[in-house]
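Q: For a teaching session next week I want to show students how multiple molecules come together into a single three-dimensional assembly. I've collected the sequence lines for a complex. Could you give me the predicted structure tokens for the whole thing so I can convert them for display?
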Amino acid sequence: MDRLDREFNLLAASAERTARVQRDEVKRFLDATQRQPVASTKAATSVAKGDSQPRRGAILAKHLHGAYDALIAHVAQRVADYETLPDAKSKVGALTEMRQMVVGARNLHRSLSWLDAAGNPPLDLGTRYLVDQITATLVVGHAEITVVAATDRSYATVTNPLRPVFELSGATLPSDETIIVVFVPRREQRSGLLHPLIMHELGHAANKRHNLVARVLMTESGSKELSTVMGGARKNAEASAKAAVGTDELATVAEDVAARFLAWIEEAICDAIAAHILGPTYLYSFMAIVGTSDIDAAGDEHPTTRQRIRLLLTQLDGLGWHTVLGDAAPNIDEWFREAASEAPGHADPDVACCEAALARLYQEIVDVVADHLNDLVFRASDFDPIREEIGGLLALGIPPCQTVARAPIGRAAIILGSWLFAVEAQGGGLDALAVAADVPELSRLLPKALQDAAMLEAWEARS
Amino acid sequence: MTLLRWEALKDAVECEELSQRLVVTPLLDFDKQIGPASVDLRLGTEFRVLRRTDESGLDPGDQPQSSVERMTTTVNVEVGDKLWLHPGQFVLGATLEFLRVPPHLAAYVLGRSSWGRVGLLVATAIFVQPGFSGCLTLELVNHGESPIALYPGSRIAQLVVHELACPTDHDYGRDADKYVGPTGPQVSHLAKEATEIEHLREVGLRLVEPLD
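A: Of course. Below is the structure for the complete assembly, covering every listed component.
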């Protein structure tokens, strides 16, 4: 056995062992699920859900177990293949692949913290019910969602993240199982006013499942705007080049710009989804987090914040929010509208071209979103009649979940009413958006109101 | 004090003037919850369960509030699930309903007899002051011989409401040290009474001093 063989064996053993110890941990989680544990005063430090509902994280654990199984099987296959390799060059290739597998297996341990989050969710129960129900409506009814308080990233989403590992051994994920992992910054896990950003993240999961970007592109305007963007990119490349540009090079440039445009459409869809469901609340949450960056900076993935504000205002005005926005938080509304009306002019012609195309396409985007969400829409006319009552309840320190006529208050209305209460409490200026989540009463009242309203709705639906 | 009957309870919870309203929210099933002379209250989803710590015991005169907090852990039980309470065990729960008692009313929270008959004690500190606002903390003890499953949302207690002879200007919410606006069970604030216990110690010393 030469040096390469021994090193390969070391790496294979390490990869197998790394996957195996993690699989053992997942197995313990799964075993606990199968025992159908119940919350008990006898086990106060390891409380689990009862036997009447599936345990949160059960499908995630199953996928993780499958992924580790696949990884271990793949390692075994590569070990068997190694015996048949004809020369040193092939062995070096196998060695490199096995080294990557060790790294991959080690990195996969990040997913174990998702199980911890499933067992001990970072969000309050009221928000969890809201996220669960919106996921069921927006993505698919049987999706399992896990919200993770992340220390290393901002709001983000992944759908079926284990699929590539799972498929290493040729296995496929059951088509009726979808897992979604949403990350919220750990520092904001108790900031209920910022949780509307989760709805934007769920938009990505919805797009992955229902091909919403493709549906926009299938409209007449969609295909036209994509052609315009790609044609513009070619022209811009030719105009800026000092020498003649080759056909292949032009095609690459056009594809890159098209990829950016498609990513922007996806972001605009996610914004539109969140605004459709939650109304101005999303704009406020968005501004509190995203608005602190350079609002004219265009990214490969995101349109400029200024354009996003402009598009959101257009959509919200279309849902009748103009008067409420101006009346409830006039200083903030004024800033939004001023910011939206300014056109900075981009030095990069491709950015300008994408921005113009996205603006022209926005109505199609809103239409696709409205069609996908069906009746799940929050209009000003839903909020106006109960706005004063919500404000009165909050002012007296009462969670606003039910009107005096005993009707459940919609959860979008609860969050918006809480936002307006917080903005007023923090002075009503644009800076109030940054500190609204600090209003102490809301850390108690908002989760309780969301939970009780969810229960009221479910109670009435059952009755 | 007058005990409110069904008609008066209905008027109290439907009072248009919010500051005078007896707030009971959420009221899932008005017809089932408003009785002849009481309002049924449901069990909430949050519990505080005692856990083993390195504390030797509870001594309100010699223990910071944070150490009392550490003696319990929070358990959330989702609607549809249950929490088992074993014989002899004690857990703090809370009403699902958030209450606000206006200044002209006061109330008592009592266990429902159906639960009492299986050995469950629901509340020991039963008086609800005028001006109280929040979910009521319930001191749940299983005095029976069989474990009892507690389901959040089930009707576990009843609120008996009285009208004061005249409204008080010194309602409960004026005292910042008290339990103001809780949305779940709250552990004892006895530790906040350490100053009074210190005062009692001083009084005790004076009692054995020679008379002036």
